[in-house]
Amino acid sequence: MPKTPLMKRIRNKSRDVRHNLSARVGGTEHYEKEWSEKDYDRFYWESVDHPHRDLLMTKISAYSPVSLLEIGCSSGPNLLRAARAFPTATLRGIDINSKSIEIGRKMFAESGITNVELGVGKADDLTPIADKSFDIVLTDAVLIYIGKDKIDTVAREMLRIARKAIVMVEYYESGAGGGGSFIMKKGYWARDYSALFKPMKGVSDVVLTKITREIWDDDYWSTYGNVIEVRLKNA
Predict the structure, then answer these.
(1) What is the 3-state secondary structure (H, E, C) of 79-129?
(2) Looking at residue 12, what is its pLDDT?
(3) What is the chain's mean pLDDT, rounded?
(4) N or C: which end of the chain has fewer CB within 10 A?
(5) What contacts 192, CB < 8 A, 6 or more positions away?
(6) Distance separating alpha carbons of residues 142 and 78, to the nearest angstrom
(7) In whole angstroms, what is the distance from residue 193 CA to residue 195 CA?
(8) Tens digit of pLDDT for each residue in 96-137?
(9) CA 143 to CA 28: how far, in whole Å?
């Protein structure tokens, strides 16, 4: 029996409700398990020319970085763009998925790029990384998976590591609460990152640049997506 539009809407709504419940109850670990077990192909690497990366590199370039850490780098498309833009910079990426890291290492080796280092790591376990060790700390669609059980810790650790700025591509919702009390209906966390970061010591400003549909042709990213720059004092 063919599925009608109404049946599809009901099925999708039921799926979204289940996803939201799992994210709320399971917290960050719900997504950590999901992402660590995904079987990656070259999809993320081949998305290197996605328009939002143009905007992201423009924002990062303003800080003239000599070092950058990407948390949740997948196979490294942002780091490939960064390596092209900053060929003498020290670039590092960590991701929870070991298969993704393997693919990235292979692709960088084949591309002859030597200033990018990839390793397995988690957003909520950054303690091995030294204080103020990177000019820029970057996330791209990563904190949408960090639950309110760990977002404060992750934010403070990113701030500890960064020298000049934290640059993020994430869902932003004004007034949602610094701790992430607002959750998207598909199970992704949207937060007021100004409310989260501005009270923290060392932050001078939080600057938002809206992601438009021309940049990212997606209902959710064009509604909630922003490039969020957490600028640091004495940078």
Answers:
(1) HHHHHHHCCCCEEEEEECCHHHHHHHHHHHHHHCCCCEEEEECECCECCCC
(2) 47
(3) 86
(4) N
(5) 172, 173, 174, 175, 176, 177, 178
(6) 13
(7) 5
(8) 999 999 999 999 999 999 999 999 999 999 999 999 999 999
(9) 10
What's the CA gap between 210 and 216, in Å, rounded? 11
How does pLDDT run across 53-78, given as a tens digit for each residue? 999 999 999 999 999 999 999 999 99
pLDDT tier for residue 8 given thresholds of 50, 70 and 90: very low
Quote the CA–CA distance of 103 and 75 in Å, as a whole number.
6
Round to whole Å and give the CA distance between 19 and 14. 9
**CA nearest to 147, candidates 14, 25, 12, 13:** 25
Domain count, the chain: 1
Phi, psi of 159 (to 5 degrees): -65, -35
- Domain span including residue 50: 5-232
Angle made by CA atoms 168, 212, 70, in degrees to the nearest 5: 20
Q: Are 88 and 65 in contact (CB under 8 A)?
A: no
CATH label of the domain that carries residue 24: 3.40.50.150
Distance CA 92, CA 90 (A): 7
Strand, helix or coil for residue 169: strand
